[in-house]
Design brief:
The protein is globular and about 45 Å long. With 200 residues, it is α+β, with helices and mostly antiparallel strands. The termini are far apart. About 11% of the residues have low confidence. A three-stranded antiparallel beta sheet has the order 2-1-3, with no helix packed on it. A hairpin with a 2-residue loop joins strand 5 and strand 6.
């Protein structure tokens, strides 16, 4: 059975497989986060149709984010994620929550007031992801899907590709999208845009 790794970064949640548990020492290959948790997954025995299902789910998650962007006529960054949340029937409040990022209770989305603005934005997008994707309940993939949704909502891939052509600088792009460097870099790697960027 192959070790199954899950990145513990709130903004990443990347799942990956390696032959050796020692791979955890090198951290997440998507964002570089050091904290990686090992789980067990019988990936080698997984049917091709099961892997196809995961791929289709990822495409569905992105499609839902793109649908929301189109609904609110978002064509330029930064995405006004709070306006979208309000439009979807939520009231956003900020409180001191300790280690908690945020949560939704009835129609109130509570965000940790102590977190950086970029993290608060990601939390709002993440909770929106749960609201839209998981109306019938959650499963083992729900947190990862909510992270994927947040990434696709805050960093629309078509807008990102255009922005990289216009401003091939990571820090300038980070400010433009108002996201963390880690979240931006994950999106850049997914779109294979690294080579178009200036040295960072």
């Amino acid at each position: 059975m192959m070790p199954y790794f899950v990145c513990q970064s709130h903004e990443c949640g990347h799942r990956f497989f390696e032959r050796s548990a020692l791979a955890a020492m090198s951290g997440c290959p998507a964002c570089g986060e050091d904290e990686v948790e090992i789980e067990d997954a019988d990936w080698e025995r997984a049917a091709p149709t099961e892997r196809l299902h995961h791929s289709q789910r990822a495409a569905d998650v992105r499609s839902e984010a793109e649908r929301l962007l189109a609904c609110y006529k978002i064509v330029e960054p930064p995405v006004d994620v709070e306006r979208i949340a309000v439009g979807e029937g939520l009231r956003v409040v900020r409180k001191h929550l300790g280690e908690i990022d945020g949560f939704v209770d009835d129609d109130v989305l509570t965000v940790n007031a102590d977190h950086a603005r970029t993290r608060q934005r990601f939390t709002i997008a993440h909770e929106l992801g749960h609201l839209i994707l998981h109306t019938r309940g959650t499963d083992d993939n729900s947190e990862s899907e909510a992270n994927q949704f947040a990434s696709a909502l805050l960093i629309p891939r078509e807008i990102l590709r255009r922005a990289v052509r216009e401003t091939p600088d990571v820090e300038a792009l980070r400010r433009r999208f108002t996201v963390s460097r880690e979240a931006l870099w994950i999106a850049i790697k997914e779109e294979r845009l690294e080579r178009r960027l200036a040295s960072s």
